[in-house]
Design brief:
The structure holds 2 protein chains of 2 kinds. Chain A is an alpha/beta fold. Helices cover 45% and strands 13% of the residues of chain A. In chain A, the strands form 7 sheets. In chain A, strands 7-5-19-18-16-14-12-11 form an 8-stranded parallel sheet. In chain A, strand 1 and strand 2 form a beta hairpin. The radius of gyration of chain A is 20 Å and the shape is globular. The two termini of chain A are 36 Å apart. Chain B is α/β, with parallel strands linked by helices. Chain B has 2 domains: 82 residues, Orthogonal Bundle (Methyltransferase, Methionine Synthase (B12-binding Domains), Chain A, domain 1); 134 residues, Rossmann fold (3-Layer(aba) Sandwich). Helix content of chain B is 51%, strand content 11%. Chain B starts with a helix and ends with a strand. Classes of the chains: A alpha/beta, B alpha/beta. At the A-B interface, helix 2 of A face helix 4 and helix 5 of B.
């Protein structure tokens, strides 16, 4: 599979010929209006059930899919550079979904990884990619990524994000980002070599949200490999896209890129409204990202605007039903993200991880990227141990029933839900790890051991 | 003014009914003695909606409609208010900084300011430092609010402040920073005047600034409570 140039051109044409909207009208009239219409048409009002964060009703999940499909056709993607909406007919949307791969392999040699479609309660093993693009200082980057690559449950690498390049602040949209693209690939490879895991798949480019990092690092000699790595196309506002994303698509096409990760997020409490509207928006945006960007790995998880995470009850419900809707009704490789808010060296981070990973495993998610330690708020606030725990839980939860995942959610959410707005930062990597030996402090290790025991008691075979 | 009118004002704002509020406001200006009381009711109502939004009980579209209704109300009322009104408002220029197209946080802040009677110049997203400064000067703004949602765009917040300093214009504006990865320590380090953790925190912080004597650069650092 390669990126089809004709489809790239069609999308570019739509971005220049589609209906014109001002941002406010698009957000309020088109997005909010279409979501409300779909919620009503499929009788989804008040179907959210935060008391049971993991949905167990297949028919309901299917109705959310249908509502999301309708909303995708009604809404489209607003290209902010042209103020035109990229729209798809029902047939075009379905053709995009049908063209997405059911499975694919990334990475090289003994580090090849099988990405495959999963359904709810599927026993097939999911893929664990770490970490998210949380900022780290240059001195910490290598030991941290080496520590992450040493974890057996880790399959692929995405972040972290460099705060500086050769001591200079990494400015978004500047030539520094272009330099960072290749620089990060070099650092990641060195970390893999030190961990004895050369050839692992990578997501390009964790340090750069704009297209410049991809232009500088993907498909260039010594950079990210078009045949073995994913190229990240991340739209960062609800139902918006931009030249940045379209540049990445075009770059994937001209470099012989094969696999695109097309993703975004939707704000729970934002333009889509409450959990029901946000779940519809998540499905709709997912389908649009497949059609527009030829995504191989696709997902649009929610963020709860109340605390900028998704580990609370209503966000977990939204996350679960949206993932079930897509994984039950398509054959695509569903991607999702657990957005924790607590930092390393806190039990809360591990509880949030336990709840989110079991929900996603049981809801048919094929590939999770995580962990969002400390909500991604603070430089160097992530460590290998929470990623090890996330991988252990995610893989052990393959085949878990949604009823069991729901019991786990109801057991562990009460341990942290009152703290979702307090958001303990925990400790930085240097504080909770010995960077030389890459071992956690005894305090952090003990927290992990205790929560791991609790997870085992809750029925996880860790 | 009767309780019935109070209730109508509240209802119109909650329902986002700009037509109704404009008609109420046009009736109210016939009797200027009750205007301050009407404004107080409207402000209380919009603040309650803001709190409900922060608690997750009201969603963004409803809050935007309510803020737009409030704005429609104030447009009619403001020219008739006595000079003795205790309300503090000003002009604020808002932008998500260069290299960053996150919009929703900045949209919410804009809504909160508008709801509180501020004039808002919303420059949108991915805005260059010099464009922010030019817009603030052109609008004769007192406040500049800069949003960054990525660590790689945060340097542009600093760049606005650095440019203001180098152009000898730093004392003309209060500069507030916000956004997920932006900490109060960072805001203080780069020379901002204030930082707010939430959209709801920006307005009271601004009121604090605008009621403080002295120029922006000579005052201490402010921090809005969570």
């Amino acid at each position: 599979m390669t990126i089809e140039r004709e489809r790239v051109l069609e999308v570019l044409d739509k971005a220049h010929n589609g209906p014109v909207y001002e941002e406010r009208d698009f957000n309020i009239k088109v997005v909010s209006g279409s979501i409300k219409k779909a919620v009503k048409k499929y009788s989804l009002e008040k179907t959210a059930d935060p008391a049971n964060p993991v949905n167990m009703d297949d028919d309901l999940a299917d109705r959310y899919y249908q509502a999301g499909f309708d909303a995708a056709v009604d809404i489209g993607l607003l290209c902010r550079d042209t103020n035109r909406v990229i729209t798809f007919t029902r047939e075009e949307l379905q053709a995009g979904i049908d063209a997405a791969p059911v499975e694919f392999w990334l990475g090289e040699g003994d580090q090849r990884v099988h990405y495959q479609h999963r359904e709810p309660e599927d026993t097939r093993l999911p893929v664990w990619t770490v970490p998210l693009s949380i900022a780290v200082t240059e001195d910490v980057f290598l030991p941290l990524v080496e520590g992450l690559a040493r974890i057996p449950q880790v399959d692929a690498l995405e972040g972290p994000s460099l705060e500086t390049v050769w001591g200079r602040p990494l400015r978004s949209g500047s030539p520094y980002e272009l330099l960072a693209g290749r620089y990060q690939a070099d650092l990641m490879r060195e970390a893999m070599r030190r961990a004895g895991r050369e050839g692992m798949p990578m997501d390009a480019v964790g340090s750069s949200t704009t297209h410049y990092g991809v232009l500088g690092g993907y498909g260039v000699p010594g950079g990210y490999r078009p045949a073995y790595d994913l190229i990240l196309i991340l739209s960062i506002a609800d139902f918006w896209t931009s030249y940045e994303s379209l540049f990445k698509l075009a770059h994937a096409s001209v470099t012989g890129g094969k696999y695109i990760s097309a993703s975004s997020w939707v704000m729970l409490g934002g333009y889509a409204g409450g959990p029901e509207g946000t779940a519809v928006a998540s499905v709709a945006y997912t389908l649009l990202m497949i059609a527009a960007f030829q995504g191989s790995r696709i997902g649009v998880p929610p963020f709860d605007i109340k605390y900028m995470g998704n580990t609370g009850r209503r966000a977990q419900w939204t996350l679960g039903i949206a993932n079930q809707a897509v994984s039950r009704n398509t054959e695509i490789v569903v991607h999702s993200i657990n957005n924790q808010v607590a930092g390393p060296a806190t039990k809360m981070l591990l509880y949030e991880t336990l709840v989110g990973m079991t929900n996603m495993a049981a809801s048919g998610v094929s590939n999770v990227v995580g962990t969002r330690s400390a909500g991604g708020r603070r430089t160097n606030y992530l460590s290998p141990l929470e990623h090890q725990f996330g991988g252990e839980v995610y893989k052990a939860a393959a085949g878990m029933s949604r009823e069991h995942a729901n019991r786990i959610a109801n057991t562990f959410i009460p341990k942290y839900e009152d703290m979702l707005k307090e958001q303990p930062d925990g400790q930085s990597f240097e504080e909770c790890y010995n960077i030389e030996t890459l071992e956690p402090t005894s305090e952090w290790q003990q927290m992990y051991d205790e929560v791991r025991d609790e997870a085992i008691q809750a029925g996880l075979n860790l | 003014m009767t309780n019935e009118v109070f209730e109508k004002i509240k209802r119109a704002i909650i329902d986002g009914d700009s037509e109704l509020i404009t008609s109420i406001a046009n009736e109210l200006v016939e009797d200027p003695t009750s205007l301050n009381a009407a404004v107080d009711i409207a402000i209380d109502t919009i603040r309650i909606i803001g709190s409900q939004f922060e608690d997750g009980d009201v969603f963004l579209p409803e809050m935007i409609f309510a803020a737009e209704t409030m704005q429609a109300f104030m447009e009619v009322i403001t020219p008739h208010l006595e000079g003795g009104s205790a309300r503090v408002t000003g002009t604020v220029v808002l932008a998500t900084v260069k290299g960053d197209i996150h919009t929703i946080g900045k949209d919410i802040v804009a809504t909160m300011y508008r709801a509180s009677g501020y004039e808002v110049i919303d420059l949108g997203v991915d805005v260059s430092p010099m464009s922010v400064i030019q817009a603030a000067e052109q609008a004769n703004a007192q406040l500049i609010g800069l949003s960054a949602l990525m660590t790689t765009s945060m340097p542009y917040q600093k760049e606005v402040i650095d440019l203001l300093t180098e152009l000898n214009k730093r004392d003309k504006f209060w500069v507030l920073l916000g956004g997920g990865p932006v900490t109060p320590e960072y805001a203080e380090d780069v020379g901002a005047d204030g930082w707010a953790a939430t959209a709801g925190g920006a307005v009271p912080l601004s009121e604090q600034m605008l009621t403080t004597a002295g120029q922006p650069t000579t005052t201490e650092f402010f921090r809005a409570e969570k």
